[in-house]
């Protein structure tokens, strides 16, 4: 497990989100990498089927592994779970797992219900799927109404998109360092000062219930 090696003051625990408006959230996005697949399974498999928002996940893995992840979560979850495909409508109560080697973004090209777009572009984003690409697009379609979660993983993917989400009035949750295999991605958000809260995986699950459950 990783631990703090520097002083970063980020609110922790459920009290950290007590003062945040929960009814404004319309989309949950999750960026994850090394150390996160099992945590994602546990979190998403223990959510109810009647969530009022979609959940989009960018997990750094090759295609056959992202497909396996989607299948394993779908097997245990009450939620509907899809391995993302081009043009899929973004629906409440559905989890979309990005395909490996493809960025997943949200778009509203024809002015109707938002849909998924899959592409290897931009190539300068070395992680495909990229949390930054996902978070940026989510904020474009749902400005101020996105909850972005940054989980265990190497590097800094997610901090740029999380910064945009936070500046627009959305909510950013970073995984607590003590529960991370690699604290890189959450640390980048914590150091940038964009994390509303630093939560354990179980606290993240409870936060998703709080922000995404029906009124």
Automatic annotation (TrEMBL):
Residue ranges constituting the CheB-type methylesterase domain according to the UniProt record: 26-215
EC main group: hydrolase
Gene that encodes it: cheB_1
Taxonomic source organism: Mucisphaera calidilacus
E.C. number(s) listed in UniProt: 3.1.1.61
Active site: 33, 60, 157
Highest taxon, organism lineage: Bacteria
Protein name, per record: protein-glutamate methylesterase
Keywords in alphabetical order: Chemotaxis, Hydrolase
The keyword Hydrolase is annotated on this UniProt entry: yes
Catalytic reaction equation(s): [protein]-L-glutamate 5-O-methyl ester + H2O = L-glutamyl-[protein] + methanol + H(+)
PANTHER family per the UniProt record, alphabetical: PROTEIN-GLUTAMATE METHYLESTERASE/PROTEIN-GLUTAMINE GLUTAMINASE, PROTEIN-GLUTAMATE METHYLESTERASE_PROTEIN-GLUTAMINE GLUTAMINASE 1
